[in-house]
Amino acid sequence: MPKIVILDGHTLNPGDLSWDALSALGDLTVHDRTFSAQVTECAAEAEILITNKTPLSAESINALPALRYIGVLATGYNVVDTAAARAREIPVTNIPGYGTAAVAQMTLALLLELTSQPALHSASVADGEWSTCPDFCYWKKPLVELDGLTLGLIGFGAIGQAVAKRARAFGMNVIAHTRTPRAADELEFVDRDQLFREADVVSLHCPLTDENEGFVNAELLATMKPSAFFINTARGPLVDEAALAEALNEERIAGAATDVLSGEPPTADNPLFGAKNIIITPHIGWATRAARERLMETAVANLQAFLDGAPANVVN
């Protein structure tokens, strides 16, 4: 049976899922976490190497003579030097589509927190503010109704489409900007600048590329309405975080929420920490149990397809 090594299994499976289906395909070793300097040691005999966020450089790949398959436990696969793998005819596979519902749900959760502020008010009640209030109710920040507002989506793949569907249930109008416009009912495709000018909420759902890194910059943020909100559940490096912090601190936009940052885990001096009117969550949009179960199932199916001689979801 092939030697299978998982470099960083804890994030996908902190103990509530089972590795049994992968174990049935080979001699399985699971490391909860592996630092870059430990890759060649931990995977020395691996024929099948599986990673989530542990980087696989050309040096690491070329130092593993038995290696013949790399599986990424995510949709994004930039942690792997795919050219180095291709040079050795090692297929690299990813997991597309598993998190669509989960990330769409997270996007709406962040939007509702920005506009209705349930967590903020729950915390204030726990602190005793309602018990000492002279009135029957109070609100600590303006509460915003979504009905009739315009949601602008940057990216209109599966997740963007799922967010649009859910937003319409709240009565929102939806516009989108995408590299590949397609026919879509009740949707207008616009250019990026128009979207940032017109939207009451801007939400990112595009992949990170060399061309769009940092595209949400000071100039683009300056075109947004002062009453508008910004949400990022895509990739942290899409945003100039210092520019976003400045826009928030100067109250040039009403608020922001992000589930992703440029560095993960972030450094303590990230400019968004301490910025006004921002919600930051630790990249959990993908991590519902249902989504992780789908991810696990596809990872097993990818490996089985490779072992059967018909690799699936190959990205290199």
Explained architecture:
This protein has eleven helices and twelve strands. Helix 10 (241-249) links the parallel strand 10 (229-232) and strand 11. With 316 residues, it is an alpha/beta fold.
Features:
316 residues; alpha/beta; Rossmann fold; 2 domains; 7-stranded parallel β-sheet; 12 strands; globular
Low-confidence stretches: none
Beta-strand percent range: 5-15%
- CATH class group of the largest domain: Alpha Beta
In the CATH hierarchy, the third-tier topology of the largest domain is known as Rossmann fold
Oligomerization category of the chains in this entry: single chain
What is the gyration radius calculated from CA atoms?
A: 22 Å
- Ends distance: 25 Å
Total DSSP E strands: 12
Tally of distinct domains: 2
| Arithmetic mean of pLDDT | 96
Q: Indicate the percent of residues in helices.
A: 25-40%
Short overview:
This protein has helices at 20-23, 39-42, 58-62, 82-87, 100-116, 118-126, 158-169, 192-198, 218-221, 241-249, 289-307, and strands at residues 3-6, 27-30, 48-51, 69-72, 92-93, 150-154, 173-177, 188-189, 201-204, 229-232, 255-258, 278-280. The chain is of the alpha/beta class and 316 residues long.
Question: How would you summarize the topology of this molecule?
Answer:
Layout: E1 3-6, H1 20-23, E2 27-30, H2 39-42, E3 48-51, H3 58-62, E4 69-72, H4 82-87, E5 92-93, H5 100-116, H6 118-126, E6 150-154, H7 158-169, E7 173-177, E8 188-189, H8 192-198, E9 201-204, H9 218-221, E10 229-232, H10 241-249, E11 255-258, E12 278-280, H11 289-307
Parallel strand pairs: 1-2, 1-3, 3-4, 4-5, 6-7, 6-9, 7-8, 9-10, 10-11, 11-12
Helix pairs in contact: 5-7
